[in-house]
Write a sequence for this structure.
């Protein structure tokens, strides 16, 4: 039987419409956009068009869009780009961030913000820890493991209150708000002004675009130090010849995802709720659903199977033709339990008994039924 793919949070297939747009710029229109001849200038114009396309989605200016090779690079540019200018200042991150935020944050003075049992940020803890030396707050839009959506607008309001207090005190240290929105592109509003963010990370490989593509939105006036020196590309923030094909593909994929986000949110949330209902009916007390029940990505089902080993279950699911995950694909090779699940209050044993199923555009109800039957066999 046809394998069932339920790991769309890790990677999405390349949309054929996107691939068709990319191919000419990987083949006959291969020119370096920094060159002076007409063919290169045409490629440069197409790159600018792609940048404007991303800006239209974000409600930003094209010059505020910096193309990157995926979410990890964009997160590193956001964290390091700010903090290296303020080495004595403080950074705040949530306890459930992706490794590409946790790792660069560890290089600087930082504090970790608490989350509740659903993975939602503890806003009181943010108020307590946000002080006159904080220069950057980084909270992901939607969690890559349990799918919990964070209240960005409420976080932005708290940050704005601190900014007003600083102005009254004559404190000129900037206070910036960054969000990792890699998992949000298919379903959530990315308008940066409405969300109140200064920096936003986006990832093409999560929105049916090419892998190693994405962007960092950088609000005008925000100063960043580049990760790579030696050229003038991307407003001096990312030296190196642009990957025109990937940038065009990312822009097209993001635009398509946002155009159909309401339709896809409705369709996939119905399948998600059906999946959860079937799990609770068939496995009763054996299964606990993790993450927020209401503020949750439409495609995420994260469940703990009491007393089971998720690595063993994943192997057996794979043998049965089902591709799922135990957590973030970027940390799958590590033996530690999920830091996000532990921060939400799960025990080590519970974290090691948890599986993530993420749905996509091609997922069907029949596939969900088949997965439930396979899980029943494995659990029995």
């Amino acid at each position: 039987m046809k394998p069932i793919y339920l790991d769309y949070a890790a990677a999405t297939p390349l949309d054929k419409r996107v691939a068709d747009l990319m191919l000419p710029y990987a083949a006959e229109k291969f020119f370096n956009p920094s060159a002076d001849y007409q063919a290169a200038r045409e490629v440069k114009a197409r790159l600018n068009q792609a940048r404007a396309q991303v800006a239209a989605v974000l409600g930003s200016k094209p010059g505020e869009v910096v193309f990157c090779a995926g979410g990890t690079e964009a997160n590193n540019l956001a964290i390091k780009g700010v903090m290296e200018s303020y080495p004595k200042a403080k950074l705040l991150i949530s306890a459930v961030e992706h490794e590409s935020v946790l790792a660069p944050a560890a290089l600087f003075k930082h504090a970790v913000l608490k989350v509740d049992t659903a993975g939602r940020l503890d806003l009181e803890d943010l108020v307590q820890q946000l002080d006159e030396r904080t220069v950057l707050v980084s909270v992901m839009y939607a969690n890559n493991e349990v799918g919990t959506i964070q209240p960005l607008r409420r976080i932005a309001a708290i940050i704005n209150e601190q900014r007003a207090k600083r102005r009254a005190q004559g404190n000129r240290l900037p206070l910036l708000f960054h969000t990792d929105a890699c998992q949000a592109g298919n379903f959530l509003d990315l308008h940066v002004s409405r969300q109140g963010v200064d920096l936003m990370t986006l990832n093409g490989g999560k929105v049916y675009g090419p892998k190693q593509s994405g962007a960092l939105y950088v609000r005008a006036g925000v100063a960043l130090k580049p990760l790579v020196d030696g050229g003038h590309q991307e407003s001096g923030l990312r030296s190196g010849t642009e990957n025109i094909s990937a940038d065009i593909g990312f822009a097209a994929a993001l635009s398509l995802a946002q155009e159909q986000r309401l339709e896809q949110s409705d369709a996939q949330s119905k399948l998600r709720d059906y999946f959860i209902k079937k799990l609770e009916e068939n496995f009763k007390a054996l299964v606990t659903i993790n993450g927020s029940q209401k503020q949750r990505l439409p495609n995420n089902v994260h469940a703990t199977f009491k007393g089971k080993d998720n690595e063993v279950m994943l192997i057996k699911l794979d043998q049965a033709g089902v591709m799922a995950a135990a957590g973030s694909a970027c940390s799958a090779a590590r033996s530690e339990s999920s830091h996000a699940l532990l921060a939400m209050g799960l025990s080590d044993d519970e974290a090691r008994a948890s599986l993530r199923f993420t749905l996509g555009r091609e997922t069907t109800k029949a596939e969900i039924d088949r997965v439930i039957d396979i899980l029943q066999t494995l659990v029995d």
Remarks:
- The chain has two domains: 4-12+262-379, 16-259.
- The first strand starts at residue 4 and ends at 5.
- The chain is about 40% helix and 15% strand.
